[in-house]
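The data are quoted verbatim here:
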Amino acid sequence: MELRHFRCFVAVAEELHFGKAARRLNLSQPPVSLAIKELETEIGLQLFERTSRRIVLTPQGQEVLHDARAILARTELLKQHAAMAALGAGGSLSLGFISLDSYSFLPSLLLAFTGKYPGIRLTLQESTTDRILAELEAGSIDVGSCLATPSLPPTLIYRPTNRYALVLALPENHRLAKLAKVPLDELAEERFMLFERHIGPVMFDTVVSVCMRHGFSPRLFHARQQHTIVSMVAGGVGVALVPSCVQVMRREGVVYRPIRGETTYVESGVAWRRDDESFMVREFLEHVPKLRASTSIGKPNRSS
């Protein structure tokens, strides 16, 4: 049993005509007919019903067609992988990412990945979770780093990478800025900087839930980027609950403090198209770190 048998079989099954299948394969008709006969003999099944006017697939032929297509697809994928491995550096990848992950694991991941594939054409696009998921579905990007979302499209796969503890971002001259840990209920009258819910529903719901647990519903002021939120806090517009990795952003005028009495986490991860088996996407995902924390999202750990 050879690949030529499967190629001829798939062509005849799709054309339902030996002559057309032969032309499609750039062959004469006799080798195609012989390949079908050999395949039927090898597997012990009749693949086609033949009449003087037409041919049709048998039920057994329908089953074999599915397997034959899968074998040919995997063969082509193997060729792609071999070609990429021979190049050692070729290919392209487009990545959409949220600013959150650029403060944590993303720089080291990109350094390792481009070090292994120095010739890769890598495109980076900072965006928001809602846009990243839409662009993944549309095929505009290959991989996205994004906040966890309860409404992931069925065409995408998501894998968590990090859970970040929430900390308070306060203006440095705030009345509570000198405390080691801040009682959240003391901020009930403050304006909270936060994403709109459709951008990061888990982040939005978690922040609101934390505030509600401390006895108040937050007054919200929306922004679309994490660095914008921190800049607004520095300008005294309000306060914010932000993932702990944001602390690497040494913005003048902002201090970061843990919440007194609990630690709550939010999650980010990577997403890609379910049917994307490209070599570069697979290689990139191999470099993505495994989830480090086991604490449930939005569930507080009580502390002193």
Remarks:
- The longest strand covers residues 156-171.
- Confidence is low (pLDDT under 50) at residues 293-304.
- The CA atoms of residues 172 and 255 lie 5 Å apart.
